[in-house]
From TrEMBL:
UniProt KW Nucleotide-binding keyword: no
GO MF annotation list: heme binding; heme oxygenase (decyclizing) activity; metal ion binding
Residues bound to heme b: R18, H25, Y132, R179
Region described as Disordered: spans on this chain: 1-26
Keyword Iron: yes
Keywords recorded for this protein, A-Z: Heme, Iron, Metal-binding
An example Gene Ontology biological process: heme oxidation
Gene3D superfamilies from the UniProt entry: Heme oxygenase-like
Top-level taxonomic group: Bacteria
PANTHER family per record: HEME OXYGENASE (PTHR10720)
Xref: InterPro entries: Haem_Oase, Haem_Oase-like, Haem_Oase-like_multi-hlx
Protein name from the UniProt record: Heme oxygenase
Amino acid sequence: MSPAATLTDRPTLSASLREGTRAEHGKAESTGFIEALMSGQLTVAAYADLAAQQWAIYGALEAASARVGVHPAGASLVFDELERTTAIEQDLTFLLGPEWQRAVTIRPATRAYVAALSDLGDDVALYAAHAYTRYLGDLSGGQIVKRMLERHYGLGPEGLAFYTFPEIPKAKPFKDLYRERLDALPLTAAEVERTVAEACVAFRLNSAVFADLGAVHC
Ligand code: HEM
């Protein structure tokens, strides 16, 4: 096989992430909390609790965005239009009132997730794993979650800013661009493997947050 053919045959990071996290994705989307939330069995308070965990998680993720964003490779993955912290704060103000910060409980699995995001420092490969897991998820299944929250809990734009990307009118072209940026990262095969392993960790951290929420609300 020619060197060119070998290069062409090497799976891209985006394809490796999709394949490598498929099983973890299946587990995350079928946790008791998510299934109960999606089928209308929970309350708006349960959704507010999820939003509170996401506030802590995105605070840490977007602090990591700022750290990696000073490097060109990292900056290629940081998009202002993905920023979610402000939207979550709007949702929590609507759901819990202006004193929401006093009303929320950051759960143990969320603290562990936040610690993992802080620990990644400015490592672009690890950041890519975590940013992929959350932002492409928000632009994909997140849009299904949004419809279910509208349908079952009577929520409208005010409580669902997190799931609304005003500057991304069509998810597909944006997700394609994001995958192109992932695939352009200068990573060795070993680093691609490490990134996929970290994305699996990111999915498990999400599942653990859902398990904590399930213990309280299901
Ligand atoms: C209600 C639960 C969920 C549903 C129904 C769901 C559904 C989906 C669907 C249909 C896609 C494919 C979209 C496409 O091809 O454009 C997708 C992709 C994705 N989801 Fe989920 N999902 C859920 C939960 C999650 C969770 C909890 C995470 C991670 C925290 C996540 C992360 C992702 C990612 C990263 C992708 C992109 C896969 C890729 O193309 O590489 N999803 N999801």
